[in-house]
Design a protein that fits this description.
Blueprint lengths: L2 H22 L1 E4 L3 E8 L2 E4 L6 E4 L2 E8 L5 H7 L18
Antiparallel strand pairs: 1-2, 2-5, 3-4
Length: 96
């Protein structure tokens, strides 16, 4: 698959997800997770540097809840690449 074809497929998927979320408020992608939309109320906040009180406007926010059964550490371990040793060096397990 070429890069342009992959980019077009990803764009189509994103547009379909966004359209579905706008219509129903959530979208479930099997084996990946559930996208949801939440309405966040307006609130008062404080600038930590100046301690000035500011008003934060109401907004909508989207979130992704990953599937159950996949732990964050499992994902990180599975996607971590191990560097090969430099020339003349051995891995700790190879040293005697």
């Amino acid at each position: 698959m070429s890069i342009t074809t992959a980019n077009a497929a990803a764009d189509d998927l994103i547009h379909a997800v966004v359209a579905h979320i706008k219509r129903d408020g959530r979208f479930t992608l099997p084996r990946f997770g559930r996208f949801t939309v939440a309405k966040i109320k307006a609130r008062d906040a404080m600038n930590p540097r100046t301690r000035e009180k500011i008003k934060v406007k109401a907004r909508t926010d989207s979130s992704l809840q990953g599937i159950a059964g996949v732990e964050r550490d499992d994902w990180r371990i599975a996607h971590t690449r191990r560097r090969p040793p430099r020339e003349g060096q051995r891995r700790p397990s190879e040293q005697s």
